[in-house]
Amino acid sequence: MHYGYSQSLRKYLVLITVVSGLSGCYVTSQTGDDADRVIIGARNLCGFAPTAASILSLLNVPGAPTAEIIVKNICNEVQKRAMTESSEPGDRITVLVNGKKVTGVLEK
Questions:
Q1: d(Cα 70, Cα 59) in Å, to the nearest integer?
Q2: Of 97, 12, 5, which Cα lies nearest the Cα of 46?
Q3: pLDDT at position 86, please?
Q4: Which of 69, 47, 46 is closest to 58 using CA atoms?
């Protein structure tokens, strides 16, 4: 009887490990999808191509805003910077969004 209990417990622990691993993959994939949406959205809306690392720093915080809100915030900061500093297409700039530095290249 003791042997059967150990086998059941082992199977249960293996199942938990597998499920935990799969749920981690889903979160990573979801964050990756959001990062792509932010990068594409910022490029289309304001001509700014942020780095993936910058975007992931915004998305990987508890209570992070949606991709759409992040795009709007990025573009607002890029436009503010354009009004105060002269920048040209191809320039690498950094703006502060939600307390995080977002670095990228101006395309327009």
A1: 9
A2: 97
A3: 86
A4: 69
Q: How would residue 91 be classed by pLDDT, with cut points 50, 70 and 90?
A: very high
Please name the residues in contact with 67: beta carbons below 8 A apart, sequence gap of 6 or more. Answer: 34, 37, 38, 41, 59
Q: Tell me the sheet residues that pair with 96.
A: 101
How far apart, in whole angstroms, are the C-alpha atoms of residue 31 and residue 59? 7
Determine the pLDDT at residue 32.
Answer: 67
Average pLDDT over residues 69-83: 94
Report the interhelical angle of 67-84 vs 52-59 (nearest 10°).
120
| DSSP letter for each residue of 4-34 | HHHHHHHHHHHHHHHHHHHHHHHHHHHHHHH
Average pLDDT over residues 33-60: 94
CA of residue 33 relative to chain centroid, distance: 8
Give 49-76 as a 3 state SS string: EECHHHHHHHHCCCCCCCHHHHHHHHHH
User: Do 46 and 75 touch, CB atoms closer than 8 A?
Assistant: yes
